[in-house]
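Workshop exercise sheet. Pairs work together: one partner reads the sequence aloud, the other fills in the structure field after running the prediction. Swap roles for the next sheet.
Pair: D.N. / O.F.
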Amino acid sequence: MEEHGPKLKPTTCAEYNRVFRKVLWPLFGNRLVRDVDRTEVARFHAKMADKPNAANHALAVFSKFMNWVGAVGLREKYTNPCRTVKKYRPKQRQRFLSDEEIERLGAVLDRGVEDGESPYAIAAIRLLLFTGARLSEILTVEWRLVDLQRGLLALPDSKTGQKTIFLNEGAIEILNDIPKQPNNR
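Structure field:
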């Protein structure tokens, strides 16, 4: 991570570290990388069958590590034991709120406003609904990236790279209503 961490986005770096600490190190930390074989990798992947997306993610992180190990000579090149382990079919993560769920969420947010909850948190949740943006994109957006006249958020860097999020009237209204703070960029 010392060598490759600076080349990664901070969230990716943190996630790789988490997978190593929580999943890979407990299983393989006492082994020499040159001795880890495909059978062991397939066994660790199979033990995570109840969480197929997490299993595939851990396998992908381990595979990147093993490719690096081969490239730097700690293991014979092109002998990545993860390479032929078959991944699980990913579970679909896309889900949309029903009209009823949106209505209930709106009522809860309205009560939050009445109860004096953070207007920023409430605005963030509403912006997620109106834009379909990722949570990290909404929570880290800066005013300098918001163009209300043209109705867009111009994100220089998101999970998928540079991205423009188009704002509908509801999103623009939410942004106009957010209390502005002097130190709020």
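Discussion prompt: The two ends are 31 Å apart (CA to CA). What would you look at next?
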